[in-house]
Write a structure and sequence with these properties.
Length: about 475
């Protein structure tokens, strides 16, 4: 174990010196700004800093001052030192990547008060003086030797939500008419109101009017300008919502207060549901603070134990969805319990099959690889240590899980242990559907934005396909 040991007043001689060396990082600047509250744009705003006199982000001057304090408090004199005064002159700016050497030298002792004056000099990697001054301290009179404290690690997380981009894009496209099924709880009304105020949806509330009005009253929200379709019960509300979606009277559905099982059953009816030539699947967009970009996890909700063909549909839905939210060529990781194909583990065989389907054009628009375990997908370093090389590792956009069970566990682990925020949609039906329980109003609003982007993408695809058919018929 390493120790901190001081030098007492009697041990210190004029001319004694000590030093430390530190390199300024972007993280140092951010942590110092958070700790001090000093958010001067010269330190934290790259656009402003480039137009300023130094043309770059510079470190806080007192970061260097804190290093002087570090030497005095931990090295010379060390533990037991009491700071009395400090003068500093700042000679040069310190930028990210600059290496500072902080040197203190005892220049005067006062035996009566046990005080020592130190000259302080801070040099950069070019041996240029960036700071200089003097410090006066009360030196310790008793010998102290203590184990070095083990400090917690600091992890910085992005100060903005990745979801903001989706909301901005969706607003430019315009609001969708949204059928909200059985909205008989205050939380649902709050979420609908939030999305409506954001300009993302035009609500159509479907359910027993009396209960809807009571929920709005409980939420203290005025819904007098919302369209309400009165039905006797949740089953009738669900049936009406299906009819509205089938007749293109609404562009999306919100589960509201109806159970997931009831809604799924209604959507999968052959002539009255939302079935198309695509498989239905759920995609959850995850803003994980420790991952550099959004992750799409599929399918953690709908297909309990999908076979290979269903997984093909799930994967294609996710790729199309990724394109809809702005990912031009999504990188798709097919997750499994091991990295090699094993006939005893179906998920590995299916993963290999999906990759071959992609090679043959049965899955279009993405870069697929698998089977891959979760650690290899997230950490390129781990994957390379195992001899796995792939454009997907460390840079995946989509995670395709083997089953609902594994997907649900993974989603909840990321939410509760990694503090991810999630917003998702049911894909593959006539309209996108918000299926998840409304416990985060902001995430529900983001899901509405995702629905707009998804619908707009598919409408453009249909228009392009129709145009291609017309062009082909002309040549024939």
């Amino acid at each position: 174990m390493e120790y901190l040991e001081n030098r007492t007043f009697d041990e210190i001689q004029v001319g004694d010196t000590d030093s430390l060396t530190r390199t300024l990082t972007e993280k140092d600047i951010q942590v110092f700004a958070i700790m001090s509250g000093d958010i001067n744009p010269a330190h934290v705003d790259i656009e402003y800093a480039q137009s300023d006199m130094f043309h770059k982000i510079i470190g806080h001057g007192m970061w260097g001052g804190a290093l002087i304090s570090t030497v005095l408090g931990t090295q010379l004199p060390g533990p037991g030192t009491i700071y009395v005064g400090q003068t500093i002159r700042f000679k040069r700016p310190v930028g990210i990547g600059d290496t500072l050497t902080v040197k203190v030298t005892a220049i005067e002792k006062n035996p009566e008060k046990k005080r020592v004056i130190f000259s302080c000099e801070v040099l950069n990697q070019k041996d240029e003086v960036v700071m200089e001054g003097q410090a006066e301290v009360v030196a310790p009179t008793k010998k102290i030797r203590r184990p070095k404290a083990v400090l917690p690690e600091i992890t910085l997380r992005r100060p903005y939500s990745l979801f903001n981009t989706y909301v901005v894009k969706a607003k430019k496209i315009g609001a969708l008419k949204a059928g909200v099924i059985h909205p008989v709880h205050a939380k649902i009304i709050e979420a609908v109101h939030d999305a409506e105020r954001a300009g993302l949806i035009i609500p159509v509330l479907i359910g027993k009017k009396e209960r809807i009005l009571h929920a709005a009253q409980e939420a203290e929200i005025d819904i007098s300008n919302y369209e309400i379709i009165n039905t006797e019960h949740s089953h009738a509300a669900t049936s009406k919502a299906m009819a509205l979606a089938r007749s293109d009277e609404v562009g999306m559905l919100v589960r509201g207060g109806v159970s997931r099982e009831e809604l799924l059953h209604a959507m999968q009816k052959q002539d009255k549901g939302l079935l198309t030539d695509r498989y239905m699947s759920y995609a959850s967009v995850m803003d994980v603070p420790t991952y550099p970009k959004a992750l799409i996890l599929t399918d953690p909700l709908i297909n309990v134990d999908p076979n290979l063909d269903v997984k093909r549909g799930i994967t294609q839905n996710a790729i199309d969805f990724a394109k809809a939210i702005g990912i031009e060529q999504p990188k798709v990781a097919i997750l499994a319990g091991m990295d090699n194909v094993s006939p005893t583990m179906r998920s590995t065989v299916d993963a290999a099959g999906l990759c071959k389907m992609s090679e043959r054009g049965q899955i279009k628009g993405g870069i697929l690889d698998g089977p891959l375990t979760f650690d290899n997908v997230i950490s390129a370093e781990v994957a390379k240590s195992k001899g796995i090389h792939s454009p997907v590792i460390g840079d995946a956009d989509i995670l395709v899980v083997p089953s609902v069970e594994t997907g649900n566990i993974l989603a909840e682990q990321l939410e509760y242990l990694a503090e991810s925020r999630n917003a998702g949609l049911l894909l593959g039906g006539r309209v996108p559907v918000l299926m998840s329980r409304i416990n985060d109003i902001h995430s529900s609003t983001v899901a509405c934005a995702l629905a707009i982007l998804s619908m707009d993408y598919h409408q453009q695809e249909l228009s392009w396909q129709e145009l291609s058919k017309q062009e082909s018929s002309k040549h024939v």
